[in-house]
Amino acid sequence: MTLYTHADNLTCAGGVTSMDAFLHKFFPSVYRKEQTARGGGSSQYCKFDSQLLTAFTSSLYLAALVASFFVASVARSLGRKWSMFGGGVSFLAGATLNAASQDVAMLIVGRILLGIGVSFAALVS
Q1: Residues whose CB is less than 8 angstroms from the CB of residue 91 and which lie 6 or more positions away in sequence, other chains included
Q2: What is the pLDDT of residue 108?
Q3: How far is 101 from 62, CA to CA, in rounded Å?
Q4: For residue range 69-115, what is the model confidence (pLDDT) as tens digits?
Q5: What value, to the nearest 5°, has the Cα angle with vertex 71 and ends 73 and 90?
Q6: Where are the domains positioned within the chain?
Q7: Burial (0-12, 13-18, 19+ Cβ within 10 Å), 41
Q8: pTM
Q9: In the chain, which end has fewer C-beta atoms inside a 10 angstrom radius, N or C?
Q10: Which pLDDT score, from 0 to 100, does residue 34 have?
């Protein structure tokens, strides 16, 4: 299950960040660069060069890294079952927040919650 959630996130995030509707709503500067590159006005290289888009993508992995330092102590104090449950709740909350996102801040917070959930699921299981 843990491998599935992590692999599913990798494939979904990569696919979503290349969708025009997503880029137009959340990352308009990247969308404009992509449209210019499609029209032959510039090279295809670095059309996704955006620190905000990088923060969106990296936030899950950074949150999972930071959470990994706390998983063992939480699992020791609460037990494996409740640690897994907490990770699942965090993952569900992150997925819900990402689905309902209206701006980039909501997306990043959702990805952070997803990262915490993935970390707990991966390290406790």
Answers
A1: 5, 113, 114, 116, 117, 118, 121
A2: 94
A3: 20
A4: 999 999 999 999 999 999 999 999 999 999 999 999 999 999 999 99
A5: 130
A6: 2-124
A7: exposed
A8: 0.78
A9: N
A10: 76
Q: Please spell the DSSP secondary structure of the chain, one letter per residue.
A: -HHHHHHHHHHHHHHHTT-HHHHHHH-HHHHHHHHHHHTTSS-STTTT--HHHHHHHHHHHHHHHHHHHHHHHHHHHH-HHHHHHHHHHHHHHHHHHHHT--SHHHHHHHHHHHHHHHHHHHHH-
The amino acid sitting at 93 is A
Q: Can you read off the two tokens belonging to residue 17?
A: 């960040």
- Read off the amino acid at residue 101: S
Separation in Å, CA 117 to CA 49, 66, 100: 28, 12, 18
Q: Among 5, 41, 4, which residue's Cα sits nearest to residue 117? A: 5
Give the torsion sign (CA, 44, 45, 47, 53).
positive
Token pair for residue 89? 């709740």
